[in-house]
Structure formats: C-alpha cells, structure tokens
Amino acid sequence: MPLVSMRQLLDEAAKGGYGVGAFNVNNMEQIQAIMEAARETKSPVIVQASRGARAYTNDKFLYHLMLAATELYPEIPMVLHQDHGNSVETCKSAMAMGFTSVMMDGSLMADGKTPSSFEYNVSVTREVVEAAHAKGITVEGEIGCLGGIEDGHGAGGDALAHLTDPDQAVEFVRLTGVDALAIAIGTSHGAYKFTRKPTGETLKMDRLIEIHRRLPNTHLVMHGSSSVPKELQDIINQYGGKLKPTWGVPIEESQLGIKNGVRKINVDTDSRLAITGAIRKVFFEKPEEFDPRSYLKPAREAMEKVVAQRMTQFGQAGHAGDYTPIPLEEMAKRYR
Ligand SMILES: [Zn+2]
C-alpha cells in the first residue's frame, strides 16, 4: 500500500469513533517498532518526523526507510507526517520529498520560539493549505501555543499561558481550511509536563470539549500527550538514570478527548523512555557487551510494546483493514 493521506485516516477514525496515535521517529529501529506494533494490533499508523528528525537522519534516509516499510507491511495504511513545520518552506520541502501530510505550526514565528499573531498564523497556514490540497496532501494547523520545548521548538514556559481560544479556533478553521487542528489545553512537549497528576486546573479538558462543540467536523489533535508512565521512569532510574519525578497526560484523559473529537494523539516521550530504559538495563547488567544489536534489539522491543499498548488504548487497533487507500490525486480532486 502506498503512503496515504492523513485526512483519509482521520476521516475513518471519526467514522469509527477512535483515535490514531502519531509516533515520532528518528531512526530505523523506531520505524520498525511502530510497524511491528501496527501489524500485531492491525492498526493504521501515522509516523511523524520533526524538523530535528529530518536534519538528524538527512530526510532522504528517513523517507526511504518509510518506503521500505510500505513494501514490508502492505496491509497497513500509513501516513508520513511533518511534525511542527516552522515555515511554508519547511512544509513545501516535506511535500516535495513525499510526505503525505504536513503540520504548519504558525502559532510560533519561523524561529520556532516566539508566539505569533493570529493574522500571521492564518496567512502562512493558508498558503500551505493551498499548496498541499492541490496535491491531495493533508494539513494540520495549530492555534494557541503548547508548553515546553522539544527539538528546539516551542514557546517554553507555562503551558497555560497561550491556551486556545474557542472563538479564534472557529475563525482559524474557517479562514484556513485546515484538515486537522492542534489545540493548546495545558499539555507540554517533553518529559516534564506536570509536577503532579493533572487536574481540571492544569489540563483543560473542558476547553477541548467546548472547541469540539463549536467545531464538530474538524479533527482535533492533542500534542504533548505521552502518558510518561512511572514504570518506564523507574526502569531508567533503577539502572543509573536521573529523571526527576514527572507526570504526563493520563490515558483516560486522552480517551476522553477521543470521545470529544480528538483523532490524532502525539506520542514521543513514551517511546524515548522505553528505549532509554532498555538500553540502560543492558549497559548496567552486561557491561562487557559492545555489539550495538545487543542493546538496540531490546530497545526496539520495548518501544514496540509501549506503541502497541497505545494503539489499543486509542482504539485504532483492528482498523487497518477497514478501507482501501484513496490516491493523493483523487484527494486533490475532492479538495477542488
Ligand atoms: Zn507537538
């Protein structure tokens, strides 16, 4: 199966009332972990690459690993998505490479740090939507700013400082025509999301529900939504790591989001924790080892396990065979 548009995956998820995890990758082992988890759970998948991932891999390598995945897992509908494009150029270069979905994050200026104006956000996002839809490619936008910084991208600081305003969200979707919308409801990128289990004061699910009520036909996206499980933190610390105590987004909150229009849930930190814990364990228990496979294989297995768990919890498991891919040319016709 060729790479498919994210719009089709999310439309199907809306019909079926489930969410789809979007997992970040930087190397072959992470792609393999996701694809094995997808096969095991029969899940459609969104694989996403940040600007940092594209730079780290030289995105040609990344793209060809993804093509290998489409050959090896022909039964799995699979999207390649640009995570947090900082500019029109970044999104256009992803499209030229063969990405089937892009995020234009115009909530920040092109430096990836400074919160932008509403007008700027609308103008850059609309430009990307026009270019992408002409090719049948999906666009995710962002209104409001997430907390934290990851890969040098993010407003940083207080996750409650730039929450999404529901009126602006409605206006933004109307003016840009985005397929999916990332909203800020108190989540942050990275491992340190909350200093204690989040409550309605720190994780604004009521805001999300209000936005869905106003935009029932827009696919909502939750960023910074790893659950940061204590078991994974403990493995790292047990084998010499020094993570400070931290809390992520509880699975039941993501599931509440899915009941209220969330179709894409971004997960990166959980995979990172699983990989690092597995590698630390080998280094600690078998210091005589020096074959990279001796630690990369358990790392890949640990990530596969956590990804398969999320696919089941988000509800995408069992849905890989529900539909046949719509070619991008056909998607482009539909947008016209
Ligand atoms: Zn994000």
Over all CA atoms, what is the radius of gyration?
19 Å
Separation, N- and C-terminal Cα atoms: 25 Å
Side-by-side strand order of the widest sheet: 1-2-3-4-5-6-7-8
The bound ligands are: zinc ion
What structural class should be given to the helix and strand makeup? Answer: alpha/beta
The major β-sheet equals:
8 strands, parallel, barrel
Order of helices and strands: HEHEHHEHEHEHEHEHHEHHH
Please work out how many helical segments DSSP would assign.
13
The overall strand count is 8
Ranges where pLDDT stays below 50 over 5 or more residues in a row are: none
What fraction of residues sit in β-strands? 5-15%
Shape summary: globular
Q: Give the rounded overall mean pLDDT.
A: 95
Write the layout of secondary structure elements.
Elements: H1 6-16, E1 20-24, H2 28-41, E2 45-49, H3 51-57, H4 59-72, E3 78-85, H5 88-97, E4 101-104, H6 118-133, E5 138-143, H7 166-176, E6 180-183, H8 205-214, E7 219-222, H9 230-238, H10 251-259, E8 262-267, H11 269-285, H12 292-314, H13 328-335
Helix pairs in contact: 2-4, 2-12, 3-4, 5-6, 6-7, 7-8, 9-11, 11-12
The structure holds zinc ion (ZN).
